[in-house]
Design brief:
The protein has ten helices and eleven strands. By secondary structure, the chain is of the alpha+beta class. The protein folds into two domains: 62 residues, no CATH class; 205 residues, Aminopeptidase.
């Protein structure tokens, strides 16, 4: 099996599989969760902020179990998939009085990182009930921002880990497969951007994106222990031309294939999206293309 089993871009060797088998044999009474934590500790498999990569590790062990390479102990409990079985965010009452004003009258704008705060439920509710794509739980590393003006929420911005395969972005950066695998964590994906429908302020959207380009890298480094060098997003050309992104100096990188990550054929299975990107540092290509050997 040497070099043949891959998980999330990592090649799992026969020696590593043998190590996992010994780990399981040495701890026959330990749960699957605790086994994954022990494996992370043994391999020093941690995130930049020091947190164990236990969830990814559990996925690896389950994949090896299903492939017949290891034998995991029986699952002690069946956890619900929060992305499938979670309840939809409930409506939250907010002031919906129409606000028509120049941008100067809204300042100072307040940007609040609300993940794991009491205001996160308000953020989720606003996206669920006022964004055409509704609320979707972000994947991987993530940040959620509420923007306030005059004591009222005016906008929501959600950021998360970037999609692994995105041809227009990869060509623009000049990524090899290995460079992408090692450096994808330095890219943040703007999964949702909502200006509440009763807020009618010219140039607000592009202003918020420009401010976010300064705020997000600082907060991301503090939260996850590593920087981000590039931002990206999708725009549905049937709904929008991405005017606010362009006005904030985002770059059109190309168009998706419409196949998605799980498409069984090369035929499009969903609408084509325009891909836009925003470099955060001058030498982003060089930094994102650095590869550690060994």
């Amino acid at each position: 099996m040497e070099g043949r089993f891959r998980y999330r871009g990592r090649v799992i060797t026969e020696a590593e599989v043998a190590f996992i088998r010994r780990l399981i044999a040495d701890h026959p009474q330990v749960s699957r969760r605790r086994l994954s934590e022990k494996l992370c500790e043994a391999w020093r498999w941690v995130q930049p902020n020091g947190v164990l990569c236990a969830m990814v590790c559990r996925g690896l062990m389950l994949a090896l179990h299903r492939a017949g390479q290891i034998e995991l102990p029986p699952a002690r409990q069946l956890s619900k998939n929060p992305l499938v079985e979670r309840s939809r965010p409930a409506p939250v009452e907010v002031d919906q009085t129409v606000l028509v004003a120049p941008l100067t009258e809204l300042r100072p704008l307040e940007f609040g990182s609300v993940r794991r705060t009491p205001e996160e439920s308000l953020f989720n509710s606003l996206l669920e009930h006022h964004h055409f794509l509704r609320y979707v739980q972000p994947v991987g590393e993530q940040m959620k921002y509420l923007v306030w003006a005059c004591g009222r929420p005016v906008a929501c911005l959600a950021w998360s880990s970037a999609p692994r395969h995105l041809a227009p972005r990869d060509r623009f950066i000049g990524w090899t497969a290995e460079a992408r695998r090692q450096n994808l964590r330095y890219v943040a994906y703007n999964s949702r951007f909502l200006i509440l429908p009763w807020i009618q302020v010219p140039y607000l959207a592009s202003h918020l994106l420009a401010r976010m380009a300064k705020i997000l890298p600082r907060d991301w480094k503090r939260t996850y222990g590593h920087p981000v060098y590039f931002l990206e997003t999708f725009v549905d050309p049937e709904r929008s031309r991405g005017t606010s992104y362009r006005a904030a100096n985002w770059i059109v990188l190309g168009t998706t294939t419409g196949r998605g990550k799980n498409a069984p054929t090369k035929k499009p299975t969903r609408s084509l999206k325009q891909v836009l990107g925003y470099p955060l540092i001058k030498h982003f290509r060089r930094r994102l293309s650095e590869v550690e050997v060994g």
